[in-house]
């Protein structure tokens, strides 16, 4: 399981936990889990941006001078 899959699984797990907490009317716990989900989503977006920047920035060595 790669990093993105782990984050997605964690978001899914926290979302399930949030649904259970809402059924129990645990307002404070819901707020905490919502914050965790938002942080995970931000981390996922940050990582995807990082991965795409690695693909888009390719270093090309300058050609050797022929004397």
What is the element layout, followed by pairings?
Blueprint: H1 3-23, H2 27-56
Helix pairs in contact: 1-2
Explained architecture:
- By secondary structure, the chain is mainly α.
- The protein has one domain (3-56).
- It is 76% helix and 0% strand.
- The protein has helices at 3-23, 27-56.
- Helix 1 (3-23) runs antiparallel to helix 2.
- The longest helix is centred in the middle third of the chain and has 30 residues, at 27-56.
- The N and C termini lie far apart (51 Å).
- The mean pLDDT is 87.
Which descriptors would you attach to this protein?
67 residues, mainly alpha, 0% strand, rod-shaped
Structural class: mainly alpha
Question: Number of folding domains?
Answer: 1
Return the average pLDDT rounded to an integer.
87
Task: Enumerate the spans where pLDDT stays under 50 for 5 or more consecutive residues.
Answer: none
Number of helices: 2
Largest sheet: none
Distance between the termini: 51 Å
- Count every beta strand, where a strand is a DSSP E run of 2 or more residues: 0
- Percentage of residues assigned to helices: over 70%
Order of helices and strands: HH
Rg over CA atoms, rounded to whole Å, is: 21 Å
Shape descriptor = rod-shaped
Beta-strand content bin: under 5%
Outline:
The protein has 67 residues and is an all-alpha fold.
């Amino acid at each position: 399981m790669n990093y993105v899959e782990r984050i997605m699984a964690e978001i899914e797990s926290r979302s399930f936990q949030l649904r259970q907490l809402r059924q129990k009317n645990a307002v404070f716990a819901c707020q905490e889990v919502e914050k965790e989900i938002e942080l995970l989503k931000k981390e996922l977006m940050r990582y995807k941006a990082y991965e795409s920047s690695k693909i888009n920035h390719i270093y090309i060595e300058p050609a050797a001078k022929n004397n």
